[in-house]
Amino acid sequence: MQTRFRTLLLAGAASLAVSGAIAATTINGVPATISQLVQIVWNDQNISTANPLPVNVAAGGGGSVTAAGTNGTTAQAVQGINGGVPVGVSNSSLASLDTKTPAIGTQTKAASRSVTPASDLANIEPAGTAVTGVTMPAGGTGITGWLSSIWQATVGRQTFLVSTSSNLAAGGFLNDANYVFLGASPSPYVYLNASFYSNQSGTYTVQATDGTNLYTISTGTVTASTVTNLRLQATPVTATGTRYRAYLTNGSTAATVAYASVSLSSN
Q1: pLDDT tens digits for 15-46?
Q2: Residue 223 is part of which domain span?
Q3: Residue 158: CB partners within 8 Å, gap ≥ 6?
Q4: pTM of the model
């Protein structure tokens, strides 16, 4: 087989008019002509991975070889690996790159990039609409105003007044001068609450007033040494604001322990 291959190479060299001076000069030890390649095979020099055929890089090439079809976005197969365009990293290391990446976890305001809402964004929910009849309380603006309004309605959901006595005369009144106020609509208050106690029997009265007239909402008996609790719907008697009072009227015997309270609540 080798003899036949040599014969073919010699025939090819002859057809190319290769001169008898087959050992022509090489360039940097690399065959410069086809005749030199023929000579390598003729002299029984095996070409293998251990004894590869040298490749001379042209001068001015910058020491690099660019495969045909390779550009900034497309790479040809290189050493059996397909895909991927090499990216050079100059004067860099993992340590230096690590200093340029954000740290893990929450960062301070100074180390964070702020986000500015669009100037034409009315609120955080452009498609949001308040329910009918609900308006922002005085002094509030935007989301903070709404949140503070909710907070006020939550922590202030009950307003109450209470009176106590350790010497309530027979037939005396307790808590009759204290009024709780249900403001104009809309109001966060829904219920009227009252509580009465005396170590003597008596009666209770719950009234509403529009500032001129008194309207009795509920009356009943207070049993001695028993707490009486009421929970009534807060019914306005005027659109501008209703005041309520709940008082205790002592019986025929003076009481040494008594109290009466009235409150408005949202739940």
Answers
A1: 544 444 444 445 455 555 555 555 555 555 56
A2: 158-265
A3: 193, 263, 264, 265, 266
A4: 0.45
